[in-house]
Amino acid sequence: MISETIEKDSIFLPAIKPKATPKKFSFSSYGVNIRFESNDQDLLDETERVARKALINRILPCGVANPEYVFRIEIDKKDTLFLFQNGVELGSGSSRKGFFKFFDSIIRVAVARDAVDHIFLHAGVVGWRGNAIVLPADSFHGKSTLVAELVRQGAVYYSDEFAIFDSRGHVHPFQRLLNMRADDGKFTPYEITVESLGGVVGKDAIPVGFVLLTKYEPKGVWKPKLITAGNGALEMIPFTASLRNRPEFTLQVLKNIASNAIIASSSRGSAKKFAKTLLDYVDSNVV
Amino acid sequence: MNNSQNPIARQNGLVVQEMPDEILVYDLDSNKAHCLNRSSAFVWRSCDGRNSVADIVREFELKAEGKVTEDFVWLAIDQLSEKDLLQIPVTPKFAGQSRRQVLKTIGLVSVVALPVIASLVAPRNAVALASCSCLNSGACMFTSCPSTTCCNTNSTCGPAIPTLAVPTGCLP
Question: What is the ipTM of this complex?
Fold first, then answer.
């Protein structure tokens, strides 16, 4: 069905460099079957490299007849890049860097939506005394900055983007490089290693001890308000990628997390000052 | 629903997750999620089409949830109807009344928690959720990114990056 759609849509494709026969790369990640297609081997290789980095190398090459996702990456004579997902054009651009930055997000979201036996919550995560501190938040709300600061203070790094939970509600490491943004008005991205923070990366799945719904506000004041398990699970829903595709499993896992963790919400100020406050709070109230 | 009829909890198109003291409901049609607290969850479970409001009051008290009035149950039913969690909507009993007026009407004297249903809409744009990455402005819509209209040269749903003005004339 997917391949039929692609064949049909190809009629409307822009003029593509007729330099090679279609190349493919098929793999599975977190149980999601994906195929990349391109008529340019270099482009396909770069796509694979980006995907490996985006999915922390959790890629198992395999051939599946009907993958959930077919991504086709094409380049036209003007060197404009085109991205298609299951036959639908998602976007195009002439900046290779921008294009693959976008693709990096797309591929992670695809896996996050359909992951088998796991749910992905958009959140920063650190380990502290054997339990996870989970920080769900939208992009641009200071997740990575806070995670970096917590790691500097001795917490174990798990993720600055996705908390990956198994069916028990235990969180697994998603140890990509920390993605920071420059405070230059352009949000120029840059990456830092955990080692440069003097920290270590978590290796094992751990239970969640504390979920904090917070975002940076210049005049934010730490005033934690405890939330019931039900409302905590509800508040986590906007940060889940799999709710629409796998609602029963997603709600079951959210229940397992919320039933065993303390959940609170609060405003906060700068990460540098707040990180220690948070760890002290967890020491006093959670661990 | 005519308010003299017995309410029936909606079941189709809902994913229901029982929590220790609450119920989490995801509405597949509207893409909304709801958290019913203990009191509203009890009333919702009791809306089976056989129980009248008076029956639900009796059930509530029988299960040692505390002493309540019919208005208390109506407050839950109003909310369940408003959130589309009943098969047939009811005419709201407390329409247009402030919370203070409703509390006065209910005359709550017991320690029973008022029925409350918290709701929110699940996100539609998971890509923006993940990174605020974009290749065009369309990807920035319906997001909480720094900009909902602009896809800047860093491929981010953020403010446009100003280009430096290049002087064209002769400097003095």
Answer: 0.83
